[in-house]
Write a structure and sequence with these properties.
The complex is a heterodimer of chains A (477) and B (465).
Chain A (H helix, E strand, L loop, with lengths): L2 H11 L4 E2 L2 H4 L15 E3 L4 H14 L3 E4 L16 E4 L6 E5 L4 E4 L5 H8 L4 E2 L12 H7 L6 H4 L6 E7 L5 E5 L10 H5 L8 E8 L1 E2 L3 E9 L2 H13 L6 E6 H11 L9 E9 L1 H17 L4 E4 L3 H12 L1 H6 L4 E4 L9 H15 L3 E5 L8 E5 L4 H20 L24 H14 L34
Parallel strand pairs in A: 2-4, 3-4
Antiparallel strand pairs in A: 1-2, 5-6, 6-10, 7-11, 8-9, 8-10, 12-14, 12-15, 13-14, 13-17, 16-18, 17-18
Helix pairs in contact in A: 1-3, 8-10, 8-13, 9-11, 13-14
Chain B lengths: L2 H14 L4 E2 L2 H6 L9 E3 L4 H14 L3 E4 L16 E4 L6 E5 L4 E5 L4 H9 L3 E2 L12 H7 L6 H4 L2 H4 E7 L5 E5 L11 H5 L8 E8 L1 E2 L4 E8 L2 H12 L7 E5 L3 H4 L3 H7 L13 E8 L2 H17 L4 E5 L1 H12 L1 H7 L5 E6 L5 H14 L3 E7 L3 E7 L5 H19 L4 E6 L18 H11 L15
Parallel strand pairs in B: 2-4, 3-4
Antiparallel strand pairs in B: 1-2, 5-6, 6-10, 7-11, 8-9, 8-10, 12-14, 12-15, 13-14, 13-17, 16-18, 16-19, 17-18
Helix pairs in contact in B: 1-3, 11-13, 15-16
The chains are: A alpha+beta (477), B alpha+beta (465).
């Protein structure tokens, strides 16, 4: 790595905020996906001025720069695919302002999702997007990926809760878009930037809406003996116009893993369960819970349990939110997909996933946001076996292909990143992609910021117009 | 008519058929935007025909404005150029509606009424209760970005538009999003189209999330002698566990506005008697649910109204609520009809500043001897109608002074202020887009990508975009 670049970084941030030894960098070549890419250096900015300075340095040396929160992403969004500088936001983790009366908060991008809700819990408010990784993932990462979570079924995903952004563009300009008050005049720039996967700007401040906690919540656990009964129940709940706060499905395979790990009381001999939250004013919740329970029984639920108290509810949800971790105990590696389907197609899709699992010989656990048709098949395999990795991707591609045939999409909340860019042409024409690339290039003209993400490279021309740096210790293609 | 426009009227029939092209003065007049007439109107019947028309316009550098029922063309700056009026009303098909998935894909020229009827058969709806509801189309509604009383609960189209197809400034078909309720594949470009006044592309299809109709709804209206008391109740409700569907504040003059024959015609019925009282502020709250939920709301609202010293309280059953709702929905057209020079200032503020913003606007109106009326969403969006008694230079001076005073006051509390509606001839004198935006340069970048030749609604948008 170029010594002058390193010197400039250390001068800007201090020596202790710059890592460049191979043994340090190796920690940052992963995220929650199966992708790997090693940065040339890792830096820990503490202020927005640092971000401006970093972008200036990146421009000076024509080296890529990639923002990263907690690295919990599931599509390689925060990996330095072309090497360069990986900027970790963990030290920009202050909640700058909480405005209870107006239900707003201004946070730095490195604030951990659950920390914001915890900080405002005493006011009866919370930050609604709740990814399963919420105890680690950052709000900056949530904004970049437009993250979801179980309760986004009723409350919406991150973009529905973001009002204003401050960021540094790849040109080095510090800009603000949107406004804390509603209806910022002009184009909906926050609507564009949220979910742009860190390809348009590096966030420095985020203004979010805070949502009032519901007066009452009831959690139901419906236990089924067949997958079909489970999925038909979800279809029926949707069709009857009931929108639970959350409607999660865990299949038997996953349940057994979760139960062994969390001891939440999940029935290990069932085919699947639905974990359903209904919330709102007390009177409405009671009748809605009864209605949901009745639909479950109509579809032959073996048992419908109602969590007795908040302790029991928290335990069930702990099981759900730690499910990926639990499955991780069964297998060295898993590959998680994030396809979305119209909800009426759930039964057919789950049957297809079972068939694919059997045909390829990989166990597949299903634990997902059934209420909005957002699948998360976890395909278990051994990454040390290169042949397995290839076959796992083939199996996953078949699932995605089926989702698209059903009228669905390739990612509901994990993002495209460097994992699904090659799948984009399944949904978008070259003209569609050209427009998106055009928007990216308008803000990120030389591909300095998070290069080679979201969009597949066009044939015959490399997307990035800058040379990768020679790397000390390791080589990055 | 320019030479290029002249060739247009001879070439466009090849694309859409002669019967769908017109240079008839009456037709052109009907498509006027702020007094500016197109040279030709063209009415394509498919996305393919839209593409061909746009390609043609791009080749000849003709300025094009797409419209549906033309009910909201008054919003925005006068066009810098205007050659072709693109009438989208033949693209009026419901492409796909899956009640089980609660998703809908519809062509943009489709009337909202037609969509509502199709959804009602499955007890579903779209929360697009926008002004001129009986005539408005999907495309105009989305392009104009107008809000509705239902945003209190359902949000705005950015919250329930799932995807879109549109034609770009060089005649290329493009799309973003999809037709599933959760999706992060690619950039959310469709969000940029919402409220863009047709400056980025011609929308041809919009995919929506639909919503189940509530089992039953009620309305609750509390009247107050002072704004302070009304705001006090607003705050009590906002801090309670209640989640109303609609939640608006109406000023004391609105009772008179709503009792005119013109207003009744726009709303489709008469305002239920005794609900609003001249001289009193009214807080109107819509809520829904099963009987036990409705009773809970009523009890809580009655208690809060009493605590806030409400003058009077009315509970509206399903039918009366729907009638009163139509008046709220049509507040803007009603205000526009009630004065020869209505000017509506939209002020968005943080909810805690609602009272400050309202007080500043009232002060500005009264200091300039202007009548006024207000509908304010509890979320912090105020529609402040200035109602001059005549269309004259004196009125213009008064309105300019009043709007400038509102803009000056708003700057001190972070308000977004625009003037979406005022007489066309006044637009050069009034800062209709409010103060200069610091993010304008970013918007210009976006415009250039979508419409590099600048043929879509040139000059109509913020900052001359």
């Amino acid at each position: 790595m170029e010594p002058r670049l390193l010197q400039d970084l250390k001068k800007l941030l201090g020596s202790d905020a710059v890592l460049h030894e191979p043994e340090d960098l190796i920690l940052y070549e992963y995220d929650g996906s199966v992708e790997v890419a090693r940065p040339n250096c890792v830096v820990f900015p503490r202020t927005k001025e640092h971000i401006v300075g970093l972008v200036e340095i990146a421009n000076r040396y024509k080296t890529p720069i990639v923002g990263r929160g907690a690295g919990t992403g599931l599509s390689g969004g925060a990996l330095a695919r072309r090497g360069g500088i990986l900027a970790i936001f963990s030290k920009m983790n202050r909640i700058l302002e909480v405005d209870v009366e107006n239900q707003r908060a201004i946070v730095q991008p490195g604030v951990v999702n659950a920390d914001l809700s915890a900080a405002v819990a005493h006011t009866g408010l919370h930050f609604a997007p709740d990814p399963s990784s919420q105890k680690a993932c950052t709000i900056g990462g949530n904004v970049s990926e437009n993250s979801g979570g179980p309760h986004t079924l009723a409350y919406g995903v991150t973009t529905n809760h973001v009002l204003e952004l401050e960021m540094v563009l790849p040109t080095g300009e510090l800009i603000r878009i949107g406004s804390s008050a509603l209806d910022s005049p002009g184009y909906d720039l926050p609507g564009l930037f949220v979910g742009s996967e860190g390809t348009l700007g590096l966030l420095t401040e985020i203004t979010v809406k805070l949502t009032r906690l519901p007066e009452s919540v009831k959690t139901l656990l419906a236990i089924f003996d067949t997958l079909d009964d489970t999925t038909e129940t979800v279809v029926d709940i949707t069709a009857r116009g009931i929108t639970p706060a959350a409607c999660e499905m865990l299949d038997g395979y996953t349940l057994r893993a979760v139960e062994a790990y969390v001891h939440a009381g999940f029935p290990v001999d069932s085919a699947a369960v639905l974990l359903i939250d209904v919330d709102g004013v007390r009177e409405g919740v009671e009748s809605q819970a009864e209605e949901v329970a009745e639909i479950c029984r109509t579809h032959h639920a073996r048992e419908v349990r109602l969590a007795k108290d908040s302790r029991e509810r928290d335990l069930l949800w702990k099981g759900r939110k730690n499910a990926f971790g639990a499955v991780g105990r069964l297998s060295t590696t898993y590959y998680v997909q994030d396809g979305v389907i119209p909800r009426t197609k759930l039964p057919a899709t789950l049957r297809r996933i079972t068939e694919i699992s059997e045909r390829y010989g990989f166990p597949i656990g299903n634990i997902f946001h059934a209420g909005d048709g957002n699948l998360h098949p976890l395909i278990l395999f051994d990454a040390r076996d290169e042949n397995q990795l290839k076959r796992v991707i083939a199996a996953a591609d078949e699932i995605i292909q089926f989702c698209i045939e059903m009228g669905g999409s390739i990612t509901g909340e994990h993002g495209v990143g460097m994992e699904k860019d090659r799948l984009m042409p399944l949904l978008f024409s070259e003209a569609d992609l050209d427009l998106m690339r055009g928007v990216r290039d308008a803000f990120n003209p030389i591909g300095l910021l998070n290069p080679e993400k979201i969009f597949p490279n066009k044939k015959g021309c490399g997307e990035i117009h800058i040379r990768p740096l020679p790397v000390a210790g390791a080589s990055v293609a | 008519m320019s030479a290029a426009s002249k060739t247009a009227s001879s070439h466009l029939p090849d694309i859409v058929g002669a019967e769908h092209v017109s240079t008839d003065p009456a037709e052109l007049g009907a498509c006027a935007v702020d007094g500016k007439l197109p040279s030709v109107t063209v009415c394509p019947g498919s996305t393919e025909e839209v593409i061909e028309v746009v390609k043609y316009a791009a080749a000849k550098k003709l300025a094009l404005i797409a419209s549906g029922a033309r009910t909201k063309l008054g919003i925005g700056s006068p066009p810098a150029r205007y050659d072709v009026a693109l009438d989208m009303t033949r693209l009026n098909r419901i492409i796909a509606y899956d009640p089980g998935d609660l998703t809908l894909s519809v062509e943009t020229g489709t009337p909202l009424r037609k969509v509502a009827e199709a959804l009602a058969q499955h007890r579903q709806f779209l929360p697009l209760a926008v002004p001129y509801f009986d005539r408005a189309t999907v495309g105009g509604t989305i392009a104009s970005g107008v809000d509705t009383p239902l945003r209190q609960f359902y949000g705005t189209p950015r919250d329930y538009v799932l995807g879109m197809e549109f034609v770009l400034g060089e005649g290329v078909r493009s799309k973003s999003g999809g037709n599933v309720v959760k999706n992060v594949t690619g950039y959310d470009l469709h969000k940029l189209m919402i409220g863009s006044l047709g400056t980025l592309g011609v929308m041809t299809r919009v995919n929506f999330k639909t919503f189940p109709m509530p089992v039953a709804s009620r309305g609750f209206v509390a009247t107050f002698e002072s704004l302070d008391r009304a705001i006090e109740m607003r705050n009590r409700v906002a801090q309670s566990p209640l989640t109303p569907m609609t939640f608006d504040l109406l000023s004391s003059h609105v009772a008179d506005l709503f009792s005119t024959p013109g207003a009744e015609q726009l709303a489709g019925s008469a305002m239920p008697a005794g609900v609003l009282s001249p001289g009193l502020w009214a807080l109107t709250i819509g809520y829904s649910g099963k009987e036990n939920v409705l009773s809970r709301y009523e009890a809580e609202l009655r208690r809060m109204a009493a605590e806030s010293a409400a003058d009077n309280v009315t509970v509206l059953g399903d039918r009366a609520r729907a009638a009163a709702f139509a008046f709220k929905r049509e507040f803007i057209p009603i205000a526009l009809e009630s004065s020869p020079a209505t000017t509506i200032v939209k002020i968005s503020v943080l909810a805690a500043r609602l009272k400050d913003a309202l007080s500043a606007a009232i002060k500005a109106a009264e200091a300039n001897q202007l009548l006024w009326a207000v509908m304010a969403r509890s979320l912090g969006v105020i529609y402040f109608a200035l109602l001059p008694t005549e269309h004259s230079q004196t009125s213009l001076r008064q309105v300019v002074a009043a709007t400038n005073q509102v803009l000056a006051a708003g700057a001190s509390f972070g308000a977004n202020i625009t003037i979406p509606w005022c007489p066309s001839e006044w637009k050069s004198a009034i800062k209709i887009w409010g103060p200069e935006r610091h993010d304008l340069a970013q918007m210009q970048k976006v415009k250039k990508v979508f419409d590099p030749l600048g043929i879509f609604s040139p000059g109509r948008f913020i900052g001359g975009i």
